[in-house]
Structures are given as structure tokens and as C-alpha cells.
Amino acid sequence: MPKSENTIKLNIDLLNPQSEPKKIALQLFHWILSAGRYLIVFVEILVLAAFLSRFKLDNDISETGEEIEAKTPFLESLKADEENIRRFQFQITSVKDLKPKRPDFINVINKIAAQTPEGVILSNMTFINSTGKVSLKLTGTAQNNDHLATFIFGLKSDPAFSGVNLSSISLDQEIINFSIDCEITKAGVSI
Fold first, then answer.
1. Which strand (E) or helix (H) includes residue 149?
2. Structural domain for 176, as ranges
3. Which one of 7, 145, 172, 189 is most buried, by most CB atoms within 10 A?
4. Is residue 19, in this structure, part of any structural domain at all?
5. What whole-number distance in Å separates Cα of residue 191 and Cα of residue 172?
6. Pairwise CA distance, residues 42 & 178, whole Å
7. Total structural domains within the chain
8. Hey, what's the torsion of the CAs at 35, 41, 45, 48, to 10 degrees?
9. CATH number at residue 131
């Protein structure tokens, strides 16, 4: 017998009858049972992974503690060197802090030497460091008034010196003994 083209297919599902629809509560219960088991399996896998990683982390902590204990004597032996280095660094910073506050005394002496004529002999130079300024007292001898006047004028014209005053003068066997007071300015002296 040949097949006819007008055959009707009928699907019969005995587990899910089509005549009565499922209730929402029943559908939710079926979903919880099917998806919940996957959720429970996933949570169990996560808990087991955390439990097993605890052993690895405890091992890492103990190894790190052993390494620290092994290196502690070496670090303690370097304690004296570290103290010396810190002391040296403190000295360096102290010098760096003091250097800008003080004039360059070698440069000051060179400036005085450049202003000193041949007939003037300096016997004493006294630097007096007080808060914020450095005073200078020069004592010496000059062969005549012109040499002394040239020396004082040279100091007054130099911007490294301010307040140049002839504080004392005396004549001893045709040689002039003098004393000059002045202040050293930081603007005129390179630091």
C-alpha cells in the first residue's frame, strides 16, 4: 500500500499531559531541583578548592618564616654598617645645610688679597660669625696714608664687603698701624 500524503502526525507525551497546564509553584519547584543541584555542586567544588588552597598557603607561610629566620643573623651583622651609613648621611645633610649659610672664606681672602696694595701688610684676620652675618676684622700696617686709603677704598668698592670702617689707627716709627671692621655680604661672595 502506498503512503498517502495526508497523514496526520500525533505526538503523545505521557509525562506532560496537554490537557492540564502546570501550576507556577510546581514549575518553580522543578526548576529549583534541576538548577539547584548544579549550584550545590559548584559550591562544593569552590569549598574544596578553598580547603585545598589552605594547605598550600600554610606551606608558603612556613617557608617564608624559615627564610626570614635564616636571613636574620646576616641582617643583624650588618646593623653596625647601617648605623655608620646613616651617621654619614646625616653628616652630609648637615654640611649641605651649613654650606649655603656661610660665605666662601677662601674667596673672601682672595678678594682681600686682590685689594691689598704693596705697601700694606695684614697681620691678622678675624672672622666673627653671628646670627645671619659674618663680621671681619683686619689688622695690619701700611707704609703711608696713600696705601691705606687705596686699601680702604678697594674694600668699599667691592660688593662682597659692607660697612667698611677704619676702627683704629696709630703711628709707630713712621709706620701706620690700623684696624678695619667690615661685614661680609653673601651676595658679593660666591657660595
1. helix 145-157
2. 103-184
3. 189
4. no
5. 39
6. 102
7. 1
8. 140
9. 3.30.70.2830
Pick the closest to residue 122 from 114, 130, 132 (CA basis): 114
Residue with cell 661685614: 183
Residue 174 falls in which region: left (phi positive, over 0), alpha (psi -120 to 50) or beta: left
Tell me if 38 is assigned to some domain. no
Amino acid at 38: Y
Residues facing residue 142 across a β-bridge: 120, 176
The residue count of the chain comes to 191
Q: Which residues of the chain have pLDDT under 50?
A: 188-191
d(CA 147, CA 94) in angstroms, rounded, equals 42
Angle at the Cα of 130 from the Cα atoms of 148 and 138, rounded to 5 degrees: 15
Q: Is the dihedral of CA 91, 97, 101, 102 positive or negative?
A: positive
Name the grid cell of 94.
Answer: 648637615
Asked if 164 and 156 touch (Cβ cutoff 8 Å), the reply is yes
What is the C-alpha radius of gyration for the chain, rounded to an integer number of angstroms?
A: 50
Q: Does residue 95 lie in a domain region?
A: no
Structural element, H or E, at residue 114: helix 105-115
